[in-house]
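Something for you to look into today, if you have time. What I am after is a single protein written out in full by you. I want to see for myself how the chain folds. Could you add the entry underneath, on a fresh line?
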Amino acid sequence: MKDLRILLFLLLAFFLTAGLSQAADFSADLINTSQGQSTRAKIYVQADKIRMETPETEEYTVLRNDKNVIWIVIPEEKTYIEIRSSQTREAGIKMKGEVSRQYLSSETVSGHAAKKYEVHYLDKDTLHKAHQWVASDLNYPIKISALDGSWSTEYRNIQVGPQAESLFEIPEGFDRISKSDPPPAESKPDQTKEK
């Protein structure tokens, strides 16, 4: 369950950043820092699809904007959880809840020329401020940090290029389980999984 919390934390941090529709295909290391703690993940981006893996677990997450769905895949159990969402990600570089944006400067981040912005956004009716760096060649935000320094998200070791389609699909033979199902080891014989 700790692994699931790590994945959900990474998803939350990831959703705070921008959209996909015009981004270049790439893979990168994703570093999230909050309250002095860092979490790493590997991310793969293709058009309107994202896959995120954490080194602490075999579980991984796939976001499919084209299907309005998020899958949490659990390879060791050959299962996945499907979460339907009409709010997967907005197109463009706009942050979720964004109310204003001001261009500040041009900088280099992780070897990419980037435009730095100050962004104001609402989260649960509270106004927050962050800096966002959008890589010109990727048309994608590769770094974002709270102005107060309380958290940050940064993409490093960015490798631009096509990503395998299989990264964004459920592996063959995996069963869908609902969020309320007990783990397979605790399942009763009369329970069935959805295909």
In short: Residues 1-10, 12-18, 181-195 have pLDDT under 50 and may be disordered. The chain has one helix and twelve strands.
